[in-house]
Amino acid sequence: MLVDPIALRTPSVHPILTVLATVMGKGRERRRIKQGIYEMVHFSMDIDLWGSNNFEQSRPEIPGVESEYGVCDSPEQFEELLGPLIQKDPRYFVVSLTHIIKKYEPAEGGWRWRKWGPYIGKGNPQEEYLYDEKGFEGGVWVYHIYELKPREFIEEKGVGLMGPKVTTLKEYMAALKAQNTGGVKDAVVVCVVCGTPQSCEDLIAAGAGKDFDEVEPSWGFSCIGRFLGSGPYRKGCKKKNPAQIGCDWTLGGLFRIHTLEVIGPDGKHHSRFEPATPEVAQAHFKGKEERLASLRKLVEELNAPVKPKGRANEDKEDKR
Ligand SMILES: [Zn+2]
Question: How close is the Cα of 247 to the center of ligand 1, in Å?
């Protein structure tokens, strides 16, 4: 489905892209056409999204879509031809469309057909360069489909745009068991916002409760960062806890975003964090002892009653 990413809500600050956009854009600016579809004035939406190239998420394979990038005649045409296929896919996508305006094309060394993927429009390209084509007066549009991870498109207020998956308690438990981490206390879920893997053992070490029974209601529901004063998730933000573990998200808040609902024995839907993949869970389990020790140390520091005098200024800065 098509979603609006967080990153595009702010102007691009990337120096090279800013120059490129000024040159290519001819005074135009990035524009949201509709949810998940943006007109860009350069070809590198991945840099706007992630601050760098992201090969993996720039190459999604979508059933029925020949290529994740290509050329068409207009945004409307793109939407008509590929929109339904993208919407049908349960993953999350954003589309970049860049207008190549024929009248701005230079006589030499301008835009040419090759390397931009398949042409899905109605025209009949005959030349190598757009400049030399007859017709195509409206120019062409280069499209590129990018895949987003859930935490990359949650709006700042935390309003999610996606519908959750629904599973049974039995299936949920089976997914946790398949992680093979040695027991329910070591089963691993992943925070829907910050992506931090976490087990009940972690929550106990983070001070969320003294034993399994106490932390179990929080686990898979509130991120570990909530117990460590981590603050809200923001890419690259400075968090209150120096280790930057987790975020303050809880599924019980006013804004309901979650990717998974588990049908409980009561027949009701309960929102939960998703189980980690077995690979992630096992890697997490392997680093357990070391992590628990550092969590306990962090909690001790956070709970230390009085800090040495000399650090007063530092603390003030931290609170901003
Ligand atoms: Zn989190």
Answer: 4
